[in-house]
Structure formats: structure tokens, C-alpha cells
Design goal:
alpha/beta; Dihydrodipicolinate Reductase, domain 2; 15 helices
Length: 425
């Protein structure tokens, strides 16, 4: 452990950065958050509250923070997807190492440019692929490495986005219009592609993909549905996407998009819904993100893998088949058996179960991965080779190549050679 705490600064103080800041504050003997920049004063106040009574230097923009020189060991970047690369390069040139929220960039050319600049400058960049740090996926990785199912042959993963989450984030929300952010398979599923890459432990060679935006469009709007839920929809009582659910069982989503919304009175929320993008009918938005997609992958070690992203299921599930057995894990097996992981041996047909422990409450985000990543941050920073960090930029480039190639394959109805795709990038 370092003799002195690692110092952290931040730009873009939305939900992700505030979560990391909260955990850093809980580990105050190892981390010290010293500066933050955001154009929204309310977010800076929330950062100050997380760190009180310690003092925090605040700035109205990343430009102002950069003008102050290098203020910390590590800069956390939690800006919107399209504004990751520019501030990351600026930070590295000032001498910062970087903790960068995923996705790295909105296109693969920028991913490669960032990788090359980090290499030129000799900087550490760690990507917030928090699933790599979860008790669940850490256990799965350990079980595979123990040889419990022999040599891995196939990996099938499902990312059930959840219907209201899809509506909130990828129809009404910040990631609904792909042209303004990232393809759905990157914006939502670069986590899942990264996990597949990590578990396969090999270079991906070819990618194909199919998918579409088929449900969240005007063709599926209920008869008489207005442009906004607040305009009085005749189907509201039976619509699972009715925006008035932000007043009831879906109120927690407001913390990400409406400052103070979780504790706001109902009339304030109704007024916000009348004008904000989150009050729109999900069938009458300007969204272009797909609501379903399947990605097929093959690796140099002959593992084949499939990822299914769907708006119409909830939670992640995993099926890994090997020469000696089968590993099933995640939401589906949990619902069926009450256990997190089930391993069936081919020889005797016996099944053994494994469960993982996740602290409840504030430590449960992303299956415990948010906290575990921050808990491991200082140890990751001590590794002599930056590429060896569990979610280093160098390792994350691979899964981003898989994702951007998958979207190209979907749009062109083709099989993408990853080596050739990387060269083009």
C-alpha cells in the first residue's frame, strides 16, 4: 500500500463519479479526492457533501481545472460518451493517470488514438469495466481457471436491459439517439463483451451480428397515444412505460437525470415530466438505438461465444460449456435454483452450487463491482506494467473492437475480420 493516499480529481460529476467518490471517501486512509469540475453547481455541491468536512477545490469546467495544473495523481473522467477522449488526452499531457468511465469513445478510431497517446506518454489509463471486479465474475473466472469444466468450448451471455431501463436510458434518455453517443452494443454492452473477452482469454478473430429497433416506434403506439404521457394517454393504466411511474415504483431513476428529483414533491416531478425528454411517449421519440441484438464471436483458441442484448428481460445470465462440464450462472439460474452458479459434471451428472456474497445497500451497485474496483484501485496502480491492470486501457481496447465491429457487422450484414478491423482503426 502506498505510504501516502492516492489523490483523485474528477471532471463530470454525475452519478458514476459520485459513486466512486463516495467509496473513495469511505477508504479515506488510501484515497483523497481533492478537486472536481462540472458546469452544474448542484453536482459540485453533492460532491462537497460526500467529502465533508474535507475541503474540495471546485471548478465550473474541465478547462478551468486543467488551467490549474496537475492537482492529483489520478483524474476520474465521467463526462458523456462523446467527450471522453479529448479530456483524457489533455489530462495525460498534464501528467495525470486516468480512471476513465466506459465506453472509451464513440468510435474505434478514437479508441486507438487514445491507446497510442497513452503509450507515447507512458500514462496509466484504467477503464471502469466494473464487472471484472464483482464477486460473481471473479468467482466464475477462478472456477474456469481451476479447470472445473475442462477446456472451455462455448460461452453464451444474455444482457437483459429491463423494459423500463431501456425506455429510460435508450429510448427517452441520453443514449437513445446513437448518432449523438455510442451504438447500443457499446453504450450498454461493452461490459458484457469485456467479460466474454476476459473469460475466453484469447484474441477475438471474427464477429457477426444481427439486431434492430423493432418495438419502440410509432407503429406500436397505442391508439390515441399523445406525444407526451402527461398529455393524457388512454392506454396509461396498462402501459408499463407510462412516465408517471417516475412518481411511484420507478422514482429511483430520477437521481440520474433530475437533480433532487428522488426527494421532490409529486407536483414538481409532474411539472418536470411535462417538459423533459423523460415525459415523452416511448413510441413517439427520436430514438435510434436497437432494442435487441445478437453478437456472434470466435476466438483464436477456438472458443465460440454469443451475446444477446434484449430490452425484454432483466439481468445478466451466463452459460459456459466445457469439455468436462457446464457452468450456468446469473439471473436465470438464480431464479430457478436460488444459487448464483451451478456446475454440472459430464462424467457423473452431479451438480454443485456456488454462491457469492455481495454487501447489501450502498455497496451493491453493479453486483458489488463499483466498490470492489475502487477498493482495488491502489493495488492496480502498483503493478509495474500498466497493461496488467485488470481493466487497463490496453485490455479494454479488445472488447471495444469487438463491439464496434459487431455494430458494423449488423449494419452491413457481414462477418468482420477483427485483425483487418483493427488495422483500419
Amino acid at each position: 500500500m502506498p505510504a501516502q493516499p492516492l489523490t483523485l480529481a474528477a471532471i463530470g460529476c454525475g452519478s458514476r463519479v459520485r459513486i466512486y467518490t463516495k467509496y473513495a471517501a469511505l477508504l479515506s486512509d488510501r484515497y483523497k479526492v481533492v478537486a472536481a469540475a462540472d458546469p452544474n453547481p448542484a453536482r459540485l455541491r453533492l460532491m462537497e457533501e460526500l467529502l465533508a468536512p474535507a475541503k474540495l477545490r471546485t471548478f465550473a469546467s474541465d478547462r478551468e481545472l486543467f488551467a490549474a495544473g496537475k492537482l492529483a495523481d489520478i483524474l476520474m473522467i465521467g463526462t458523456q460518451d462523446a467527450y471522453h477522449v479529448e479530456p483524457c488526452i489533455e489530462a495525460m499531457r498534464l501528467g495525470y493517470d486516468v480512471l476513465l468511465e466506459k465506453p472509451i469513445a464513440t468510435n474505434f478510431a478514437e479508441v486507438r488514438a487514445l491507446e497510442l497517446e497513452a503509450q507515447r506518454l507512458g500514462r496509466r489509463v484504467m477503464i471502469c469495466h466494473v464487472l471484472r471486479y464483482t464477486p460473481f465474475y471473479t468467482t466464475v473466472k477462478s472456477l474456469l481457471e481451476s479447470g472445473v469444466i475442462g477446456t472451455v468450448a462455448t460461452i453464451n451471455a444474455v444482457e437483459g436491459v429491463a423494459p423500463f431501463h431501456q425506455a429510460h436510458s435508450f429510448v427517452r434518455g441520453h443514449w437513445g439517439v446513437v448518432e449523438k453517443c455510442s451504438p447500443m452494443i457499446i453504450a450498454k454492452c461493452c461490459h458484457d463483451l469485456d467479460i466474454i473477452s476476459w473469460l475466453a482469454d484469447s484474441t477475438c478473430t471474427h464477429v457477426s451480428s444481427f439486431g434492430s429497433l423493432s418495438h419502440f416506434n410509432a407503429a406500436h403506439a397505442p391508439s390515441g397515444a399523445p406525444a407526451r404521457c402527461t398529455d393524457g394517454c388512454p392506454a396509461a393504466a396498462n402501459c408499463i412505460y407510462d412516465a408517471h411511474r417516475y412518481l411511484t415504483d420507478q422514482r429511483h431513476w430520477l437521481q440520474w437525470v433530475f437533480d433532487g428529483g428522488v426527494n421532490a414533491d409529486d407536483e414538481s416531478i409532474r411539472e418536470w415530466l411535462r417538459t423533459s425528454q423523460w415525459g415523452r411517449c416511448v413510441y413517439r421519440c427520436d430514438n435510434t438505438a436497437v432494442d435487441r441484438q445478437s453478437v456472434n464471436l470466435t476466438f483464436a483458441n477456438n472458443i465460440t461465444a454469443n451475446l444477446t442484448m434484449t430490452a425484454f428481460d432483466t439481468g445478466r445470465s451466463l452459460e459456459i460449456r466445457g469439455t468436462d462440464g457446464v457452468l450456468l450462472g446469473g439471473e436465470t439460474i438464480k431464479r430457478l435454483t436460488g444459487h448464483d452458479i451451478a456446475i454440472t459434471n459430464h462424467r457423473d451428472g452431479k451438480t454443485e452450487y456456488h454462491d457469492v456474497k455481495i454487501e447489501e445497500g450502498e455497496f451493491a451497485g453493479h453486483g458489488g463491482g463499483d466498490y470492489c474496483m475502487i477498493d482495488m484501485l491502489d493495488r492496480e496502480w502498483q503493478k509495474p506494467n500498466p497493461a496488467d491492470m485488470r481493466s487497463s486501457l490496453q485490455r479494454s481496447v479488445e472488447s471495444h473492437a469487438m463491439g464496434f465491429a459487431a455494430d458494423e457487422a449488423r449494419l452491413t450484414n457481414s462477418v468482420i475480420d477483427l485483425a483487418e478491423f483493427r488495422r483500419r482503426g
